[in-house]
Amino acid sequence: MKKIFLAASLFAVSSLFAQQGTYDDLTIKSYSPVLTLKRNTDVGGYIQGIQSQLSDGTNNWFFGNLGTDLWSVAKGDYQNRYLSVSSSGNVAIGINDYPDYRLQVGNGMIASKITDSNVSPTNKVGYLINELGAGVFELSFARDNQGVVNMKTFLDRPIVIGTNDTERMRIAANGNVGIGSKNPDAPLTVKGLIHATEVKIDLNVPADYVFQKYYTGTSGLKPEYTMPTLEDVEKFTKENNHLPNIPSAKEIQEKGLNVGEMSNLLLQKIEELTLYTIEQNKLIKEQQKRIEILENNAKK
Predict the structure, then answer these.
(1) What share of the chain is helix, strand, coil (3-state, %, to 5)?
(2) How many Cβ atoms are within 10 Å of 258's Cβ, its own excluded?
(3) Using omega within 30 degrees of 0 as the cis cutoff, is the peptide bond preceding 244 cis?
(4) What is the 8-class DSSP label of residue 78?
């Protein structure tokens, strides 16, 4: 540091009291407000780098370049770069190489990339963060073929989103999403209330097989289905305290309730109940006819 301060003092004195000074093989020229260093020899040209040394001759810091288009600040000699600026204006901090982006920070830990605002189908526009290592994380705000906001991890790492220093939502490494749950066991696991104005559920086998089997004797939707008689239903409910094919209270408490499956089973029971009602209505009408016949015969 003493040598650097001494050199700076010499430069200042030269610029104040002389237009040109010569120190061995070094020429200092002052073209206000610029101070120029030039080798005092016909071989080579203007000095492009400054290498400072400690009192024992060890290289301390290097500033400048060595005939390349990369200006650097390096610790020791020029090869150990800490800060670099390329001729294109790209800046690298902590990367001992040419920067590929306007600002590139880190080497092996964090690399941040800020690109320009030119919009094109393949150009990422915005901000990209990469954490290199065992758990690689990438966050980008971009207008490209992948969308506007991209957030992803690599290897076996989840994405956790929280508020007020508390986890609220998690995307597990296998893709399952948990809201209020740190261990989602399904594509969407919610621990708490779901409030919705509409829910759409896809069913592979709708309950129309009940009517198909009743009126045609066969069903392409569910060939094995057989409509139970009312006697069978009565016997089953007396023994089990719930309808056939409907899970018991204990099963629901232990395993939960499949909304799609339950909706279909309830529709099946409604269709069965409708057919029971139709049969009873036919029976009532037949009985009414017989009663009318008996009443007419009694009047004769």
Answers:
(1) 30, 30, 45
(2) 13
(3) no
(4) T
88-103 as b/e: b if 16+ CB within 10 A: eebbbbbbeebbebee
Side by side, which strands form the sheet with 127-131? 49-53, 59-64, 70-75, 81-86, 91-93, 103-105, 110-114, 127-131, 137-144, 147-153
Q: Give the C-alpha separation, 300 to 297, whole Å.
A: 5
Q: Determine the 3-state secondary structure of 57 from DSSP.
A: coil
Q: Which residues contact 197 (CB under 8 A, 6 or more apart)?
A: none
Own/partner pairs, 93-97, CB within 8 angstroms, 24+ separation: none
Per cent of the chain over pLDDT 70 is: 69
Q: What confidence tens digit (pLDDT) does each residue in 98-111 have?
A: 888 888 877 544 44
- Distance of alpha carbon 173 from alpha carbon 154, whole angstroms: 9
Mean pLDDT of the region 183-194: 93
- At 25, is the secondary structure helix, strand, or coil? coil
Q: Is the pTM of this model over 0.85?
A: no
In contact, 140 and 149? CB cutoff 8 Å = yes
User: Cα separation of 173 and 185, whole Å?
Assistant: 12
Burial class of residue 280, CB neighbours in 10 A (0-12, 13-18, 19+): exposed
Structure tokens at 59: 């290289």
Q: Write the single-letter amino acid at 269.
A: K
Task: For 17-37, write each residue's pLDDT tens digit.
Answer: 334 444 556 566 665 566 666
